[in-house]
């Protein structure tokens, strides 16, 4: 499950809770924004499309239910409600206002992470269902379902990791990934290798899909930062 770079908005007026959630999610490679009242949360949601919103029910200025309802007027971004109340009606009400899930306080941060990842999996699957199975960039054609890649209509044989790298980059065009992010995302956090593994795979990938690997038109290097796909 790819979580590096996923954007999360945490909304709660208890700053210690926000600080703890933020630290834990950032340790998993997520990008976290924070808001401490209803108006601030709604403004943030209008400015950026988040992969998940963690939204407390009891907030200054606006309730979480009101925020959830207003967000649903312009976005389908996933929302997980946080509530300190054990009243089932609150939970049901939250879902009726358009929330995707709820967590009751006090909670374990591992449960929060599990719920976020579950929401992201569902969202990714829904996006994939409407996303083209075949993607074409110039003379490069990627069949995501069969995991086949063609250059000038001729199939090139990529290893599983080379394909995973290419797929991640093409579906996030112009987004620069550090070597560490690519290593953690494609190989996993427990992979014993180092960032040179990424460089080797990028070099081999270029040799297979680029007309001139030393002057690539698809997989580019951002010196001192990492790699990105230019569409």
Automatic annotation (TrEMBL):
Modified residues (4-aspartylphosphate): 56
Sections of the chain in a coiled coil: none
DNA-binding region(s) in UniProt: 132-231
GO process terms (BP): regulation of DNA-templated transcription
Keyword DNA-binding recorded: yes
Alphabetical UniProt keywords: DNA-binding, Phosphoprotein, Transcription, Transcription regulation, Two-component regulatory system
Residues annotated as domain OmpR/PhoB-type: 132-231
Residue ranges constituting the Response regulatory domain according to the UniProt record: 7-120
Job of this protein: May play the central regulatory role in sporulation. It may be an element of the effector pathway responsible for the activation of sporulation genes in response to nutritional stress. Spo0A may act in concert with spo0H (a sigma factor) to control the expression of some genes that are critical to the sporulation process.
Descriptive protein name: Stage 0 sporulation protein A homolog
Organism: Anaerocolumna xylanovorans DSM 12503
């Amino acid at each position: 499950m790819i979580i590096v770079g996923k954007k999360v908005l945490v909304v709660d007026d208890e700053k210690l809770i926000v600080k703890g959630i933020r630290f834990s999610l950032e340790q998993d490679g997520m990008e976290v924004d924070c808001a401490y009242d209803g108006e601030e949360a709604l403004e943030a949601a209008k400015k950026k499309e988040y992969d998940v919103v963690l939204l407390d029910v009891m907030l200054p200025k606006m309730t979480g239910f009101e925020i959830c309802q207003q967000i649903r007027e312009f976005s389908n971004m996933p929302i997980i409600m946080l509530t300190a109340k054990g009243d089932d009606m609150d939970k049901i009400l939250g879902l009726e206002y358009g929330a995707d899930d709820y967590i009751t306080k006090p909670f374990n941060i591992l449960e929060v992470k599990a719920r976020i990842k579950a929401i992201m999996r569902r969202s990714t699957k829904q996006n994939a269902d409407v996303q083209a199975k075949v993607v074409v960039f110039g003379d490069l054609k990627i069949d995501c379902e069969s995991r086949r890649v063609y250059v000038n209509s001729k199939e090139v044989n990529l290893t599983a990791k080379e394909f995973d790298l290419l797929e991640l980059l093409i579906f996030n065009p112009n987004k620069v990934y550090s070597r560490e992010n690519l290593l953690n995302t494609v190989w996993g956090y427990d992979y014993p290798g180092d960032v040179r593994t990424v460089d080797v795979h990028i070099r081999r990938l270029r040799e297979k899909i680029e007309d001139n690997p030393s002057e690539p038109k698809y997989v580019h290097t951002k010196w001192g930062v990492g790699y990105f796909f230019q569409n």
